[in-house]
Amino acid sequence: MKTIAVLGSTGSIGTQTLEVARANGDLKIAALAAGRNVKLLERQIREFSPRVVAVWEEEAARELKTAISDLDVKIVTGMDGLIEISTLPEVEVLVTAIVGMIGIRPTVEAIKAGKDIALANKETLVTAGHIIMPLAKKHGVKILPVDSEHSAIFQSLNGEQHGQIDKLLITASGGPFRGRKRADLEQVKVEDALKHPNWAMGQKITIDSATLVNKGLEVMEAKWLFQVDLDQIEVVVQPQSVIHSMVQFVDGAVIAQLGTPDMKLPIQYALYYPDRRYLAGERLDFAKLRQITFEKPDMETFLGLPLALKASREGGSMPTVFNAANERAVSKFLHREIGFTDIYQIIIESMEQHKSIQQPTIEEILDTEKATYEFIESRW
Q1: pLDDT tens digit string along 45-69?
Q2: Which region, left, alpha or beta, applies to residue 6 given φ > 0 means left and ψ of -120 to 50 means alpha?
C-alpha cells in the first residue's frame, strides 16, 4: 500500500485523485489540504481518514474543528500546516494540486524530505524550475507530471534516451474560441469562456485554456521538466483532444500518447508509476473517430502563448511576473471587473514595467509576485 498526501483535495485534480484512490483501494491518504470548502473537506476526511488536515485560514480551521469534533484528526493551518503535511514521515508521494505559488514552499520541503512529487501545480516549475529540478536530482526524487500533456510526453519517452529527442509536440484543443479573431473576443462573457469543448476543469485553468495562457505555461513547464530548449518545443492545435502530446526523435520517428480526455488517467499513472492499473471509463473507438486534425495556434489573436514564450526566453523572474499577472487578471475577469482581452493587456503592462532578476531565490520569486499584484491593483 502506497501512502500519499494531497494538497488541494477539494479542487478538480484533488477530487479526481481521491476518485482514483477510491477505485483502487490500495492508496492510504495520510493528509489532505484544502482552502475554504469545509463541507467537502469534511466528507473527504470521513471517507479517507487522514491523520492530518491543513486549511489555509484560521476561520476555516475553527469551522472544520467543530464539524469533525468526533474524529481524531489533527488540524493545521497556513504555510506551516502545508509544510507539515508535505513532510510527514509516512508520506511517499505528495500530490501538489493546489493552485498558485502557495505550492512552491511545500514542494521544496517535500523534496528535501525525500518525497516523490505528483506535480499538478504549474507555478512550481514555471517560476522556480531552476530551483526545483536540481533539488529533485540532488535528493533522488521523482517529479511525476499529472498534467495531461506532460504525462503524455512522459509516457512517450518511456524507454527512450533523452539525448535522442528532436522536439516535443504539445497539443492544444484551441479552447472555446478557436477560429475567432481578436474583435470577437472583445465581447466574450465569463459564461462563454468557461465552456471548454472537451475537458472538465477548474475555473482558472478553463479561462487559461481560452486565452492560450495555459499552453504557454505548459511550454514553460516542459522546458524544465524534460530539460530541453524552448526551440525544441512546438505547440500544435488538435481540436479533438485525442492526442495528448507527442515526441519527435532525431530519426524522424514520432511517438504519441492517445486517449479519451479524462484527467484520472495521468493522475493514476503518476501515482502508480511505473505500473499501469485498470481505469474504468470510455475507450477510444477509432472506427467512430473518423479523423484527427491539426492546426497551427493563432498567436496573433490568442496572445497568451507568445507572451509566455517571451517571458520564458527572458527567464529569471519574468515568468513569475507573467504568471502572477495572469493569475490576478483571470481573477478580475471571473469577478467581472475586466473584459476578456484585458487579461492580455494586464500581462503585457506588468511585464513591461518589470526589471528581471536572474536566478531568483524563492524569497525573490514571492516578492516579485507581490510587487506584480501591487502594480496591477494600482492600475486596474
Answers
A1: 999 999 999 999 999 999 999 999 9
A2: beta
Contacts of 153 (CB under 8 A, 6+ apart): 145, 168, 170, 222, 226, 245, 246, 247, 257
3-state helix, strand, coil in the chain (%, to 5): 50, 15, 35
CA distances for 115 relative to 23, 148, 328, angstroms: 23, 22, 31
Burial 32-55 (b: 16+ CB within 10 A, else e): bbbbebbeebbebbeebebbbbbb
State the cell numbers at 148: 495531461
C-alpha cell of residue 143 = 517529479
Q: Which of 35, 17, 24, 34 is nearest to 1 (CA)?
A: 24
Closest CA to 257 of 278, 274, 243: 243
Per-residue pLDDT of 4-37, as tens digits, reads 999 999 999 999 999 999 999 999 999 999 998 9
- Closest residue by Cα to residue 320 from 271, 369, 277: 369
Question: If you ran DSSP here, which 8-state letter would residue 356 be given?
Answer: P
Cell of 302: 490568442
Domains (ranges, CATH) in the chain?
A: 2-145 (3.40.50.720), 150-261+282-300 (no CATH), 315-380 (1.10.1740.10)
Which H or E element spans position 149?
helix 148-156
Residue 80: count of CB within 10 angstroms of its CB: 10
Rounded Cα distance between 192 and 38, Å, is 29
Name residue, grid cell 517571458: 311
Max CA separation in the chain (angstroms): 62
Reading the block at residue 128, the C-alpha cell is 522556480
